[in-house]
Design goal:
DNA-binding, 10 helices, homodimer, alpha/beta, 11% strand, 209 residues
Amino acid sequence: MLADDHRMLREGLRRSMTDQGFDIVGEARDGDEAIRLAEELQPEVILMDVTMPEVDGVEATRQIKISYPGIAIVMLTMHADQEVLAAAIRAGASGYLVKDCSTDEIATAIRTVVRGETVLSPQLAASMLEEVRKLEEPSPDEERVITKREEEVLQLIANGCSTPEVAERLFISQKTVKNHLASIYQKLEARDRTQAVLQAVRMGIIHLE
Amino acid sequence: MLADDHRMLREGLRRSMTDQGFDIVGEARDGDEAIRLAEELQPEVILMDVTMPEVDGVEATRQIKISYPGIAIVMLTMHADQEVLAAAIRAGASGYLVKDCSTDEIATAIRTVVRGETVLSPQLAASMLEEVRKLEEPSPDEERVITKREEEVLQLIANGCSTPEVAERLFISQKTVKNHLASIYQKLEARDRTQAVLQAVRMGIIHLE
DNA sequence: CGAGAAATGGGCCGAATGACCTATACGGGC
DNA sequence: GCCCGTATAGGTCATTCGGCCCATTTCTCG
C-alpha cells in the first residue's frame, strides 16, 4: 500500500513496484486515509511518506502499528533527518529510505522488511551514528555566550582545578579567575561553580572527560 | 567471502549462500586472513564475524574499508550489542545481523547491502534506538557505592542547593550534610562538590534536569 | 575617533566550604 | 554480643568562594 500526498510520486511508485512483482492494494493521500485504508485493506507492507497533510507519516505509523503490528511500514523521506528517523523507528517503522533511492533499492527494502528486518538508507545510518557518537555538542551554539577565556576557566574547573590552580595554569592571578567566574555566573544564571559547570555541560559548552 | 573462526558455521553459510545463488570466493578464519583474502579476491560482499582471533571483525572491517571502500561488509554477531554495533558501522560495515537469523534473511541482507543500503537486525535497531533515547542512565550501577541519603544530598546539590539549603530541605543540620559530602568525596574520589557532582553525573548516579 | 567588549588586575568582607577530630543511635550480620 | 556501616550531630580551623567596589589595557566595530 502506498501513502504519499504527491500523485506523481504515488503513480511512479505504483508502476515500479508493480514491475518488481508487488501488488499495490491501495493508495492514501494523507495520514488519516492511510490509517483507514490500512485497517480496511490489511496490506503486508506500507510505503509511507513522512510529510503528509492532516496526520504525518510518523503518527500514522504509530497508530497503525498499535492496531496491526504485523503490517510492516517503510518510511520515505526527502531528507536524512536523525530526529525524524528516531521518531519513525520508535513509532514502529521497519525501514527508512531517502527518496532518491532506486526502485531496486525500494524493492529490496520491501523484501527485507517483510522478513522482519530493518532497512536504513546509508546516509541515515550514518546520521544515526553521528547522533549516537555526539553525546556531546548537542547545541550548535546559536550564539557564543561564553568567551574563549571563560570557557578555558570553566573547562579547567570541570577538570577539577580550584581557583588558585586555574590561575596557575592560565598564568593569571586568582582575581582574574574570579572575575571570569563572576561573568560566567551571570551569563549562565548560576550562583556557584558547581551550577555553572553543570549548566555548561547541559549547554554543551564543556565536555566531561 | 566468509570470515568466521568456526568451521561449522562457515560450511553452513557456504552451503546456504550457494543455494541462494551466491558464489563463495573465499573463507577466512581470522581477521588477518580476512584482510589478506579481501585484497586478493576482491569479493563483492563479506560476511564477517565480530569475534575472531588475532584481529576482530570490526578492526578487519575498518582496514578493508580503508583500502577497498567498494567491498560491502555484513557483520554477524551472537549478541545484540549497541556498542559493538556502533563501532562496526563506524568502521564501515553495511549491515549487522544477529546469528540466529534465517538464511533467507542473510540472503536478503546481502542483496540489500550490495545496493548500498544498510541492514540491521530488528533487535539491533531497537537497541540502537534505546541508546539514542537514553541520554541518561548510562551505567546500570554495578554496585551501589553511594547510599540513598548521600544520593539525595548529591541530587539537591546538583539542583543548585547550597549546604544550608540542603540541610533545610532534608531537615538535618548543616553538619550532617557536610558529613555526607565528606563521605561522598571519598567514595567518588572528588575533592569538592563540583567534582563530586560531575563524577556522579558521569556514573549515572544523578541526572541533569 | 569613540563606544563597548574582553582580559587583565586590585581590595574588602562575610559566608560557605572542606579537613580533621569526636560522638551517639540504630540497624544487620557473624 | 560485638562489629560495621549508616545517619545523625558537634567543634575548630584555614581556605576558598562569591559579591561588591574599582582600574587598566587591548581590541574590534561602527
